[in-house]
Amino acid sequence: MGKLGIYTSNPRFYYGVIRTLKDFGINYKSIESIEDDVKIVDGILSYTCDQRISTRQIFSENPVQAVRRGLAFFLNLEKFGMISIGIDPGPKPGIAVTTDNIVLEAFELYDIQQIRETVETILEDYVGDGYSIRIGDGDAPNRQYILRQLRSLGVNIEIINESGTSFPHKTHDNALSAARIANIELFLRKGPAMSVKKRKELISEEFQTVYSM
Domains of the chain, with CATH numbers? Predict the structure, then answer.
């Protein structure tokens, strides 16, 4: 399993990165000095004004952005290819970010009014060759609201037939449904996971993920 390093003199940034890496399920190493063996990590996350100690180093003021950009190094890439954002429409939309059939993250918003700011931030944080947005065709009122919010972003938007993406209905998880919408071709080929488990376990059963690598 890979590992990302943290090299910074900014305590707030340091602890923000650790919290985010734990949320992503990624191992990390604190780089204490330039003499540390930086070759044992896939990439290094640093605050904007920190010293450069590696060619595989991400600089950012925002811990979440640093981790998101560092995921490319974690996956042994210089940058991502096509980034696809899947959205399960609803009052608390599910959001999933994928590239090359790998689910980078999946989560649920507390409020649909967060949708534009959330998608804008994803587009800014992930550096890729291109971007697309896939929205499930259910929940027409909320779907139309999401479309109105995102049309002006200049990103290609597809409406996806979301039949079956909410299975099993008793444990419907908006984030899991969003991952299925983003990877609809792979989902249709494999079919839904049958077991009732936690979100990360269910997503890992169906798709390749960052935290299962």
Answer: 4-74 (no CATH), 80-212 (3.30.420)
